[in-house]
# Entry
Amino acid sequence: MLVLSCNINKSIRINDDITITVLAVDLEHVKLKISTPSGVSILRREVYLQIKNGDNQKSGKLAPPKINRLAD
# Structure
């Protein structure tokens, strides 16, 4: 595991095609911009685990909506 600190508007690069930029930080939240190739899905961990475990079907919830990508 790698733990990094990063200032606002600074980026972290993963391989050649994933960039994570810190947009804002307050007492309880961090706002990130994640840029990836169009075929890569990005989900919060708890949503990913629900989908993986099939919990969203058991509880009657629908799968999470597709996220519209913003132009860089």
